[in-house]
Design a protein that fits this description.
Layout (H helix, E strand, L loop, with lengths): L2 E5 L2 E4 L4 E8 L8 E6 L6 E6 L5 E3 L7 E6 L4 E6 L8 E7 L14 E2 L3 E6 L1
């Protein structure tokens, strides 16, 4: 079983920055695709950004030009640098991980999910 733990969320003023971390551990599986999603209560989970072990990246429209994704394969850890934050970025940010190098259209395809970390951007 893989444990996925997000950290780095918090309260920040508009225009500020945060760095989220997702760490996957506890399995013999090789973690490949890792993606960030976010969700506002009452709405569907939205893609933020993803990265494979080979460092192919995938950004959602809301993240392009402001957010930057990276990873440390040796640590099975993924990072999301979020800059120029806006109040509409407020959400719970979830990390998904999978042994396949695929960015799934259907979020239910991901094998492992974390519990999420809250990001709140004040105006």
């Amino acid at each position: 079983q893989v444990q996925v733990v997000e950290s780095g969320g918090g309260l920040v003023q508009a225009g500020g920055s945060l760095r989220l971390t997702c760490a996957a551990s506890g399995s013999h599986w090789t973690i490949n695709a890792m993606e960030w999603y976010r969700q506002v209560q009452g709405k569907q989970r939205e893609l933020v950004a993803g990265i494979t072990r080979g460092e192919s990246v995938n950004y959602g429209n809301s993240a392009k030009g402001r957010f930057f994704i990276s990873r440390d394969n040796a640590k099975n850890t993924m990072y999301l640098q979020m800059n120029s934050l806006k109040p509409e970025d407020t959400a719970v940010y979830y990390c998904a991980a999978d042994p396949d190098p695929i960015f799934f259209e259907d979020i239910h395809e991901y094998d492992w999910w974390g519990q999420g970390t809250q990001v709140t951007v004040s105006s």
